[in-house]
Write a structure and sequence with these properties.
Layout lengths: L19 H26 L7 H30 L4
């Protein structure tokens, strides 16, 4: 055994997982996350080929869904921060 000093890191956060506030924030952002994944899937599908009209429609639809989800999240965040109803 060596003469090294063992230090305890008592300041290290040792929780079992995210807090309720963090879980609520993630839940509120899920529509945006889902829309981002849908757009990414549509973009990946056409990476190695020329997009057909259907592919282009899928990408446009995914972009619109993402914009709407971001808008809704921003509006809900703003209304909540202002103390108003969503």
């Amino acid at each position: 055994m060596s003469n090294r000093t063992v230090r305890h890191l008592s300041a290290v956060r040792t929780t079992d997982g995210p807090t309720m506030a963090e879980l609520k924030a993630i839940e509120a952002e899920m529509p945006v996350i889902d829309a981002e994944m849908e757009l990414l899937d549509a973009q990946i599908a056409v990476l190695d080929r020329t997009p057909s009209e259907v592919d282009e429609q899928r990408v446009r639809r995914a972009r619109r869904r993402l914009l709407a989800a971001r808008r809704d999240l921003a509006n809900n965040t703003t209304a909540t921060a202002a103390g108003g109803a969503a």
